[in-house]
Amino acid sequence: MIEDLREQGQIKDLPYVQQEKDNLINIVGNIVGKVDIIERENKNGEAFKVANFSVVSKDDEGNKVYHNCSAYGEKSDIPKDFKQGDFVKLFGQIRTSIDDNGKEHSNVRILSSKLLKAKEQMKGQDKSQEIAKLKSEIEEREKDLFYADSWEQSGQIRADLEKMKAKLNTLINSEKGQENGKKSILGAIKEYQAEDKEKPKESKEKAKETER
Question: Most CB contacts within 10 A, which of 62, 84, 147, 210?
Answer without folding.
Answer: 84
